[in-house]
Amino acid sequence: MRKIYVIASILSFSISAYAQQRVAGKAVIKSHINLSHHFTSAGTENVNDTLSASLLANCNVGPFILNSSNGGFVAGTNGYNDQEKAQRIATNTVGKIHSVLVAFGGKKIVGTADDYNVFIYNVNPANGAPAGNSIATSANVSSNNIDTSGQFTKFSFATPVNYSGPFFASVVVSGGTRNDTIGIFHTGGNCGGGSAWEKWDTGQWYALNDPQSWGANTDVVFYIFVEVEKTGNIGIDNEFLLTRNSVKVFPNPANDVLTVSYSLSKNTKAQFAIYDLTGRTVLTEELTAPYNGLNAKNIRISHLPAGVYTYTVRTHTESVSGKLVVR
After folding, report:
1. Cα–Cα 20 to 30 A to 256, which of 92, 148, 223, 268?
2. Per-residue model confidence as pLDDT tens digits over 253-267
């Protein structure tokens, strides 16, 4: 089921007329929080041993936190019973993970305080989601000890976790006997290229900017950072394979043939998908890049009924989404 949000004016996000399911309530910014220096710019890494997600250009780092209209937080425990909130960490190094640092923006304890932890996942190369079962679990942290004053809450690993290249750090926000509510700080929209993911109560993973989830404008990055001991490099990891501003879908509205233009790194593959308003996939096409620079592909859509759809261009690390009208 696709999620929708209603955002207060302090965020640059927008609501689309075709989105009708999940709804976020008031957005809150806490400008006294000063943790954004832990973030790295696109394609770079910090020189110290704190790793983060890469940010897209002109990202509003916030931090922000969105309330969910049915209780809790978009980036945390909510009435949709989301189980985990995961951030892909971009790195081209090899090393050991010692702890995960999370900046929480809110919590509510109900009765006896619950315990929370963090999982580490490998990246699924097919779709960029967390892959399979977690490879490590942190020590528990009681919700009594979750800091919401602007400091990090640390989740440590009794035995350091080996990593090689990009991975996910995922906060368990719901499930089991937990009754408390926690919420994670995040950036504004159009910041992460689909690097923030969530695990639904169905067990399925969705990027926050997926049309089946919150949608293209909720492309946030969670305030989740990882303390590591780097031991080497694995070469250049081009985390940003897709030039976001190059993605054009025209004509729009369309009724016969659609042209998709895009700029990918040479020999990179991407998937173009169209979804109806229920989130069902109605068309998929592979996009290839035989050479660097702008590429284009014509896609026949004459079999699609007239109506409003969404589309996504996705590599294994990023996705760009938009609205499509078929006449």
Report:
1. 268
2. 999 999 998 888 777
